[in-house]
Design goal:
The protein has 493 residues and is mostly helical. The chain has 20 helices and 7 strands. It has a 3-stranded antiparallel sheet. Strands 1-3 form a two-stranded antiparallel sheet. A two-stranded antiparallel sheet has the order 6-7. Helix 3 packs antiparallel against helix 6, helix 6 packs antiparallel against helix 7 and helix 7 runs antiparallel to helix 8. The chain is globular. The two termini are 22 Å apart.
């Protein structure tokens, strides 16, 4: 078992190599004093996870199939596809993401502690808002991935994750897992206090929790807990027909491949609200994994009959291997050289963590759950018009009858913790299928699979189907081994 030394937080530096021991053994108070707004702002740059959850989250979903190309098989990809504990601890793994989130949390806590010691001055309220939101976001992603789904009926006893509120001041500390109920209460408190203070006054606002990004994150959180009025409140500024504030997929078809790929995560895209630079090789691997979106399943995922108007999508699926596997260009790698002469460095991917597209889909869902189906129809019309070729506002108009016919209720299929009428079930299913395609490769489908308790079946070449049942315990990713080796309770299996 690896030797653990702690400065900021036990959970931050778990997994670091022994070569860092001398640095990690320093007394915490030897660090730079955070005594100016500039220094506090600087530390907040590191309050966002510099790791990527998208590959492992996406591979666990029903968006992914077996391409049958055995030459593309890797242990990491196979373990993710079969919902097994990931042995790898490098980039794009649950272990790596866990550590990166707690590192981000540690930086947020350092900023908050410094602000408190300076007397909470009004000129530091924007930094306080950003730190609170960043802390809430990392904890939210951790509990969403490493715990069961949120259910208020069982949240008091369901295992959450450790919620860290203070910087570490001792070399050894013991942590325990908060309940899901406790974690969600703490997230809500941080989120709502952060919303009160956050601004958009940054040189590069889309790399920070600006006001629009905070609202998008809030909409995700309120959607999961079923607070529909709050979802509408935080999305009111976007409105019911946001037009150019959503992603313009036609513009991606009007430019060459490389330009279109760069556009997806570019800060100039209106829809992109929070962008992160993550240490990741996903831009290299997501289109050549054996278990991936495949050419054989193209029509199942992107066929014209999978949308309400039965027309071709504006999404652009491409392939590097004769349609064996497919990808929609979304990720751009930036290689950060540490030694240019030797060609040594670290790859980073630009990731869109929050967008107006997600915010708008959450808004539509809230209207459905508040039985405002007429408004929801108009909003779905608007969304589809920006994603479908030759959309005709007259003949393609959405109606309740169309949605109920296209997405019939199947008994015990969609079962969130709250109740749904049959009509609401059809609408929620329609929205989940729209969201599924909108965020292909981005891992958000996994969050829907958990909150709606969806069953997933994975097929593999010459093997029996592997089925993830509705409330399968494997939906809570097992905590990294280096974490449970310290005594923190494992997820049940």
């Amino acid at each position: 078992m690896r030797k653990i030394k702690i400065t900021l937080s036990l959970l931050v530096i778990l997994g670091l190599s022994s070569s860092c021991d001398d640095f990690l053994s320093e007394v915490p108070d030897n660090r730079t004093q955070l005594d100016t707004p500039e220094k506090i702002s600087e530390i907040l740059v590191k309050a966002y996870p510099e790791a990527n959850y998208m590959e492992f989250a996406e591979t666990m979903t029903d968006n992914v199939f077996d391409s049958g190309d055995l030459t593309l098989t890797t242990v990491k990809n196979s373990q993710n596809y079969n919902w097994e504990m990931q042995e790898n601890i490098a980039q794009d793994t649950p272990s790596n993401y866990w550590d990166a989130c707690y590192t981000a949390i540690a930086h947020a806590n350092q900023a908050l502690d410094a602000i408190e010691k300076l007397g909470d001055p009004s000129n530091l309220l924007p930094q306080k808002g950003e730190a609170l939101l960043a802390r809430a976001y990392s904890h939210y992603m951790l509990v969403s991935l490493f715990s069961k789904r949120y259910n208020p009926a069982t949240a008091k006893t369901d295992l959450g994750i450790p919620y860290i509120l203070k910087p570490e001041t001792v070399l050894l500390a013991q942590y325990k897992r908060n309940s899901i109920e406790e974690v969600y209460k703490l997230i809500k408190a941080d989120l709502e206090e952060g919303l009160a203070f956050v601004t958009s006054d940054y040189k590069q606002p889309k790399f920070h929790f600006n006001r629009a990004a905070a609202n998008a994150f809030a909409s995700r959180f309120y959607t999961v807990i079923g607070d529909w009025d709050s979802v509408l409140d935080v999305s009111n500024e976007l409105g019911n027909k946001p037009g150019s504030q959503l992603r313009d997929y036609q513009s991606y078809l009007d430019v060459d491949f490389e330009t279109g790929t760069r556009k997806y995560s570019d800060e100039g895209e209106n829809t992109n609200l929070l962008i992160a630079s993550a240490s990741s090789i996903y831009s290299r691997s997501f289109y050549i994994n054996r278990f991936q979106l495949t050419g054989a399943d193209r029509d199942l995922m992107l066929g014209a009959n999978t949308n309400l108007v039965n027309k071709t999508y504006l999404y652009r699926p491409l392939s590097y291997n004769g349609q064996t596997t497919l990808f929609i260009p979304k990720f751009v790698e930036y290689f950060r050289y540490t030694n240019a002469n030797a060609g040594i460095g670290q790859p980073f991917d630009a990731l869109v963590l929050l967008s107006n597209d997600e915010l708008f889909l959450n808004r539509i869902e809230a209207h459905v759950m508040n039985n405002q189906l007429g408004i929801a129809n108009d909003e779905i019309d608007h969304f589809l018009s920006l994603r479908i070729t030759d959309y005709d506002a007259a003949t393609d108009k959405v109606s309740e009858a169309k949605i109920v016919a296209k997405y019939p209720v199947i008994s015990d299929e969609y079962t969130p913790f709250y109740s749904l009428t049959p009509v609401q079930t059809s609408y929620i299913k329609a929205l989940a299928e729209m969201r599924r395609r909108e965020f292909l490769h981005e891992g958000l489908r996994w969050l829907d699979i958990k909150r709606f308790a969806l069953k997933v079946t994975h097929k593999a070449f010459n093997q029996a189907d592997n089925v993830l049942e509705k409330d399968d315990l494997r939906k809570a990713i097992q905590l990294p081994l280096h974490v449970t080796n310290t005594g923190i309770e494992k997820n049940p299996r």
